[in-house]
UniProtKB/TrEMBL annotation:
InterPro entries, alphabetized: DedA_domain, VTT_dom
Residue ranges crossing the lipid bilayer per the database entry: 12-32, 44-64, 84-105, 126-147, 159-177
Chain ranges of the VTT domain: 28-145
Keywords: Membrane, Transmembrane, Transmembrane helix
The organism of origin for this protein: Muricoccus nepalensis
GO cellular component term, pick one: plasma membrane
Domain of life according to the entry: Bacteria
Protein name per Swiss-Prot or TrEMBL: DedA family protein
Pfam family, one: VTT_dom
Length: 189
């Protein structure tokens, strides 16, 4: 990633913005950590680019939810449950929901669409979304930067190898557990 940033410069920050348009927590953390270790990435430009990308992504989902939401809900009933959950949280928590939904994994895009579908005002959503995108960008860039400084380039391999082994252990344990569980299940006649 450091070579990518060194080779492409400003285009790499544009890619970070595009990535944050859709999601991007892992990408922002990784880019920031590597930037901290190598000095190839400016954390302030990274923060600004992912802030704008995240903001524009959620604004897009909001507008799509407002404009096409009712038709999509009729067409895809499975999406209705997720949308109902996000709308319920919006109605219950209002402003706090808009300021925090991007920190809840897996519902960011749905939540922005739910805000549009629920009829939240465009100006209100845009203002709250801008603030929330800034907090999100700042916190993930700072967390990645701190993580990069904590790990340091000399210990990076050890953390990557340890993480890979941990993922492998979880996958193997889950596979073993699911096989044992399915072997114990007795079919009902």
């Amino acid at each position: 990633m450091a070579e990518f940033w060194a080779e492409y410069g400003a285009a790499a920050y544009l890619l970070a913005a595009v990535w944050a348009f859709f999601e991007g927590e892992t990408f922002v953390l990784a880019a920031s950590a590597i930037g901290s270790m190598t000095g190839a990435i400016d954390p302030f430009i990274l923060m600004g680019s992912v802030w704008i990308g995240s903001f524009l992504g959620d604004q897009t989902w909001f507008i799509l939810g407002r404009r096409y939401g009712p038709r999509v809900m009729k067409r895809y009933p499975k999406a209705e449950a997720k949308m109902a959950s996000a709308t319920s949280m919006l109605l219950q928590y209002g402003t706090l929901f808009v300021l925090t939904f991007r920190f809840l994994y897996g519902i960011r895009n749905v939540a922005a669409a739910a805000c549009g579908l629920a009829g939240m005002g465009q100006l209100r959503f845009a203002l709250l979304n801008f603030i929330a995108a800034g907090v999100w960008a700042g916190s993930f860039v700072a967390a990645g930067w701190y993580l990069g400084a904590l790990i340091g380039p000399e210990r990076l391999f050890h953390f990557i190898a340890g993480g890979a082994l941990l993922i492998l252990a979880v996958v193997l344990f889950r596979r073993f557990y699911l096989r044992r569980r399915s072997a114990r299940t007795v079919p009902v006649v």
